[in-house]
Amino acid sequence: MGLNFFKDAIAVYRTFSTKTSRISKTTRRAQSGGNKNKKKSRESKIKWTEEQNDVLNHVRCGSSVFITGSAGTGKSVLLKRIIDFLKKVHGSSGVFVTASTGVAACALNGRTLHSFAGIGIGNDDYGNLLERVLMSSHACNRWRKVNALIIDEISVISANMFENLESIAREMRGSQEVWGGIQLIVSGDFFQLPPVSDKCNSSGKEFAFEADCWDASFDVQVELTEVFRQSDAEQIKLLQRTRKGMIYAEDLQILEQCCSSNEPDSSVVSFYPRNEDVNRVNGERLRSLGEKVVVYKAADGGLDNQRAELKQGIAPDQLELCNGARVMLIKNLNVWRNLCNGATGTVTGFVEPEDKYVLHLSPDKLLPVVKFDSGPEMVVEPQVWEILEGGLTVAWRSQIPLHLAWAQSVHKSQGMTLDRLHTDLSRSFGYGMVYVILSRVRTLKGLYLSGFNPSMIKAHPKVLHFYESLAGEEQCKEDENNSKILDHSDKSSIAFAGKKCKFSLSEFLLSRQHGK
Ligand SMILES: Nc1ncnc2c1ncn2[C@@H]1O[C@H](COP(=O)(O)OP(=O)(O)OP(=O)(O)O)[C@@H](O)[C@H]1O
Asked: Where do the DNA helicase Pif1-like 2B domain residues begin and end (predicted)?
């Protein structure tokens, strides 16, 4: 079984190597040379903080670590550094990089946790899940050879799933040690997106931290506290409080200034909680330009089951562009020039590339030229997204690294940093969604809100409790003593822009106290 897997993997790797070399020599050159430069530029911009270095030291000692912290505290970049380190220690074949969502997995060149584990969509009881794993020789092999398992965006994984995977790990490795002795590196922020409801769960547990094995799974649980995405102290404080579902009078005033009854101009990205709205708005805007549409179809390679996984990733199956289309980068191209995941711009034209191999994606044989809002204008070439397994590429997708950017999905906003964004909060937003959106924007000047109602800023009580216990009593006391928190007897009433959401603060705060 092991040998077959190895042969398969080599065959796939060879196929991949030949196919990519046929696609585009320049893209490949840019990719391979680019990867080194990208890593260099990523690292050279970063002066690791003491808390980030502490985390790496724990990993170096072989500890299993849970890394948490608010949006923009550097969890993802630190995770990349940890992955590089672990691959040096265990070799690429012993390190498996996963994430709860395809988008997050894609950003780390990993795969979804479900696919690594071999449990399908995972919505089943333990016995059936184990049977599914045992039926897949590849999955059995992965569980046996993994030395270090990385799981990003843990907030979306349910308690039930976490417990089942821990049991599967022990079973597959024939070990009674927690997670069968795997070094576990888990990252995420439970104040952001919550788990999707788990039909197999009768225990009432929702979040992974409620799993019986949660505490035993980690030697260390660390909360990163320094925010890098934003630099304005007021904005950071507002975000920290929003994250915890707290509302202060000064926050309401700041958010009021971001509210408008009019939608901003179409160059500002609008965030929606549902994909169908995103597709509808982008499609309508594209057609309203009345320009010839150039279509790019993703080219995939690799094993069938892993190719399916690429569809859950960030690069679309099909991308439609035309002159004047607003677009957003979905990959870091050049961090120094601010051409990062989330950078927006406008398509200004199309060119015929010199290297004909880059034309495989579009029958029109053209590449888009984009004028980015930050200044540069450039031809955007196809990029490759890979799924690595044991150091080998087992599946890959080539596509133009752009999304239409009039509308964007909250769920695909992970890891993005935007200069300007708009959202209509009157649409249904669950726990954490408002915080996720507000924390994507660099400065408050770039934040445009409509339909705002303070009751939307809410944190799940279980999550609050979990972080209070992580931070210890000190932090709780600090919050309690904070004199600036709104007095419940405040009789003031604040009208938001558009005069649509008038409310009494005292009523609002009291209603929250009673859990309404
Ligand atoms: N020590 C550091 N010095 C300078 N910049 C840093 C440092 N750590 C992280 N950053 C930068 O901060 C930004 C946010 O980092 P990152 O995306 O890793 O945060 P995150 O915690 O994963 O956020 P989210 O929860 O929103 O995904 C990135 O541009 C990253 O390069």
From this structure: 312-350
